[in-house]
Design a protein that fits this description.
Layout: H1 7-12, H2 33-42, H3 45-49, H4 52-66, E1 70-72, H5 79-83, E2 88-91, E3 95-98, H6 104-108, H7 117-133, E4 139-145, H8 147-156, H9 164-172, H10 174-198, E5 202-207, H11 216-236, E6 241-246, H12 251-261, E7 265-267, H13 274-284, E8 286-291, H14 295-298, H15 300-313, E9 319-323, H16 333-344
Parallel strand pairs: 1-4, 4-5, 5-6, 6-7, 7-8, 8-9
Antiparallel strand pairs: 2-3
Helix pairs in contact: 2-4, 4-7, 7-10, 8-9, 8-10, 9-10, 10-11, 11-12, 15-16
This protein binds coproporphyrinogen III.
Coproporphyrinogen III (CP3) binds next to strand 3 and strand 4.
Length: 345
Amino acid sequence: MKTNDKLIIRALNGETLTTPPIWMMRQAGRYLPEYKATRSLAGDFLSLCYNPKLATEVTLQPIRRYDFDAAILFADILLIPQALGAKLWFVTGEGPRLSTITNQNDFDMLGDVENIDDILSPIYKTVKNLSSNLPDKTTLIGFAGAPWTVATYMIAGRGTPDQKPALDLIKSNQKVFDLLMSKITYATIHYLSKQIDAGAEVIKIFDSWAGSLKGKLFDQYCIEPTKLIVSELRKIYPNIKIIGFPRGANNAGYINYTNMTAVDCVAIDSSVDTQWAADYLQKITCVQGNLDQRLLISGGHALTKETKRIVKTLSNGPHIFNLGHGITPDANPDNVTKMIKAVRE
Ligand code: CP3
């Protein structure tokens, strides 16, 4: 099937479809027994990311089980910091840890953007494998973290509830903060170009912590770097489809982000009122979202009802069905089947 005939691409081209295409953030992951089995074969999460054969396998697992309309490359947004020379490891049950960047010295220790492929080339190999192994109708999504979200982890050395270390660095040493943002931005443009060269048909930019940027800072550090990434990619690949996810942005933030970055689709979290999205966002772009991922733990009638409500509310414009955030390890795989049935029937 030609890329343009695939359901996800049709929605991204602005088409209103009778049944929205569907995929899930974090669709390959620990809620699936087959994922856990492959991960233990690899040894640990990072070894899995850098093993093209096994990363291809875990990307395909949710496609086989659920027949989603898109597959998302199995990797992580924190591979860019690692490729730039930050130390990265994962603490079981807690999450990522990185060496921190808090001053000019730390920044100077980072490597050059030109050398990131020394670390990242296995990821391109995975994309290439996927590109030739996916079912004909399935769209291949590549991704990266947005510079702000990646910077919050590089500065704090871990995930934080309020991104305070990064917000503090903007105030105490904006020069180093800006240097870091710029380095991440150019690394991301390069990384995404390589994913597209290898066969990614859609790119998603995850700004998971966009909500902590308020006022002018949101424009400066969420919208501006994303806009640059989008425009640089489109110089080389005029037809590449891009989904942006400024999680936690307020309504005005979502609108400005959509208009200013020129993404082809905006992904909304579950705190966004679906009717508001239909009335305002969907008039200017394709909308992706926004089922509360917690419903996949509890399931039941509430899951079916809420799934149908979202599909109906967004049925008058281009829509890709998805969650408001990633599926959690305690979700029940059978509830995913139920959700898909509610979307497609
Ligand atoms: O969506 C997919 O299935 C594709 C792969 C993917 C992963 N991470 C795999 C992963 C994608 C697209 C991501 C994005 C990502 N990674 C984001 C942005 C999206 C979001 O959820 O907000 C962020 C902030 C990260 C950073 C990260 N990676 C954290 C905070 C953690 C620990 C918390 C957690 O969910 O475990 C990870 C680990 C991670 N990334 C796992 C997976 C499958 C779990 C690793 C494991 O133990 O097997």
